[in-house]
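Late entry, evening session. Most of the bench is empty. Finally got around to the prediction I had been postponing all week. Sequence below, unchanged from the version circulated by S.P.
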Amino acid sequence: MRKARLGTLIFVFLVIGLVGGALSSSAAQRGLLIVITTNDQETAWQAFRLANFALSQGDQVKVYLTGKGVEILKAGNEPVDLAQKIENFLRAGGRLYG
């Protein structure tokens, strides 16, 4: 199971590296795309933690949920407060697709 989470995180960071600059509309503003493909709450929580940090630094951030990643929207607040992270992300101007 640990290998699957690591693979998902590596995929997320690979996408960030490849597409990060492609979302920006000007040279001064950076963009970040995070793709979540898992319903593991801890992994999704960490992804939204990164997304919220990037928003606080002035970056444009888009999160795309695909496959089992869509299921995190139905998740409760156990064991991490994922719903609060998503709410903070949306309030700060993040874009969520899925």
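Two things to note before I forget:
The mean pLDDT is 80.
The CA atoms of residues 5 and 43 lie 7 Å apart.
Will write this up properly tomorrow.
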